[in-house]
Model the fold of this input.
Amino acid sequence: MDTTTQTASIDTRQTNPGVELDLPKIQPLVQPELDTEVAGLLASTRYPRHALGRVESLLQQMARIQHAPGQAFAGIALDQPQLLVFAADHGIVDEGVSAFAQETSRQRVEEVLLGVAPVNTLVRLHGFDLTLVDAGLAQRLDRPSGTDEDVALLPRKIGHGTRNMVLGPAMPLRQAIAALQAGMDVVRHLPGRVLAIGDIGVGSTACAALLLSRLCGVPLPDACGRDQEQSGGLDSLRRQHRLEKLQLAAARHRKAVTPLDALAAMGGFEIAMQAGAMLQAASERRVVLVDGFVAGAAALVARGLCPAVSDYLVFGHRSTEPGHRLLLIHMQAQPLLDMELRVGQGVGALMAWPLLQAAQALLPIQRQVT
Amino acid sequence: MDTTTQTASIDTRQTNPGVELDLPKIQPLVQPELDTEVAGLLASTRYPRHALGRVESLLQQMARIQHAPGQAFAGIALDQPQLLVFAADHGIVDEGVSAFAQETSRQRVEEVLLGVAPVNTLVRLHGFDLTLVDAGLAQRLDRPSGTDEDVALLPRKIGHGTRNMVLGPAMPLRQAIAALQAGMDVVRHLPGRVLAIGDIGVGSTACAALLLSRLCGVPLPDACGRDQEQSGGLDSLRRQHRLEKLQLAAARHRKAVTPLDALAAMGGFEIAMQAGAMLQAASERRVVLVDGFVAGAAALVARGLCPAVSDYLVFGHRSTEPGHRLLLIHMQAQPLLDMELRVGQGVGALMAWPLLQAAQALLPIQRQVT
Done:
């Protein structure tokens, strides 16, 4: 079994003395016997084959994730679902690549802490625990008064926002590694078998577009969106300006081709932490419910570091960000929802959550009627 | 206000003495002031325009449905949600157009009454009331012992299955009208502001394909599905056989071009009742959550009888039935989910339900943060 476990210790010491990244071990999910067992539970003479369609593939995936080979199948466990929201700022906002001022990141975070953001509504509706992680907001983050005690706040600030990547790398390699490891660490202390992951941070979709372009070979204009499509909440003139700035950044960091180097050069603290969280969650056999474009870019980085992580990812939705569609195609992923959201925070992941619940509930019933 | 209300009394007496169909009055939903009010509640300086995407259009639609012009807007009411499942048999099954024997319809219905069908799981998960209507099963339907007391059973049998429509009309016009009126009647006695509608009945997708073809001008092979696609749970040889039989039926009833005539000639009792239920629910300003291909065909008929009904329909999902995609395009509808279901019973409608809940929950929060 251990022979198939994907693990890696990426040695960065040659170029960066003293910097080494230890990745958790992730088991690739190939369990044909379990697949047969679940398919047997789902089969019914009363309905066409695969009557429950994608609910069946979702069940298969969740079963594979939660049951190690050799373990008896005992259904899907969805108790104590967790949402992690990572917040950070991006130096590239200085170049005018977003419709929002950097200050907006902290305001959005404060709304989450106050319990009045869209994601709080869904957290309450679906019974999630919400942990907000300050991965690197530019400003100091204090809990506002009247704060929602149900929201846990974890200060894991790697820096006060990344640097402007048009001028240099967004972060030094050691910060990228520190952020990845902080993400892993945060997950280690959470209960539950399902982890939803989302993010907050003005300018983050610019990073996501750059990472998509670099790691998947997607032309940058496609990753940013052409034509009438909106990206970053901008009109066509500012979109053109944004594309030019991102092209400058991509050219400057043309040598950053590995996932780790690309992450450091063009990523963000919250992207690095999300990637770390995904890797750790997968190594612990948790179902990872991925939110939107930025979380998707973190998934790309995580996959680059350890391909087996993909088996553990459930993509909650496809957002309106044009690059998100391409990213999902490159991840060979079919998202559960397509609600044209552009809100972040894990809202899309939480909207998809009831489908996991429905899938779980439909399994034992199928057993009875077969 | 009354001047814009769409209503109709379809006079069928010329060709069918004594047969007249009284349709309920349905208000077309044009409420620009309400739209502005809801948009105002959703607007936020912190997020891009339309950050909540299709959740916003869903909210707009539900608001329009539940608030008559002039009424103050007071949020969306989703309490006491109802699921109506209409069951019936189809004489055309004699021609071998389904992978399942007619007997399967009653078995599926009994599973629902026993509380062990997939839809029961979702009814319990989402707190729906479930009413099963025997619209015209071929066999006598008794409540099986050990029945689920939470499932209401309404005997409204119009006939013991329709007739084989290759040999003649599926039902006489007076039965089509009786079924439509029974559907209206059933809704009149239900509480709640949201009504989900689904169906059970072997052979029903054949009727749906014929109605789609006739009422929308879709070529029958497209309505049935070509190539690798499955329809009616059949392999390619039997699919060809099925298409030939449906072409015979379509040719025989080539003069049945009005919605009512097409319904009688090529529809089913459960389709007629679903259409009636949709019309009545719309006239009472209920949100109508439509299940799959067969319920969609009922929506086509209902729209043919009273176009304003479309404003009240929320399409829960797109099934794997190839015709369903075309039907939704013709209804200019974007379904909430695309889970590749082929199970019927209202399962797809109930899977989509949490999105209505999420939309409802997201509205007041938006008001606070704006």
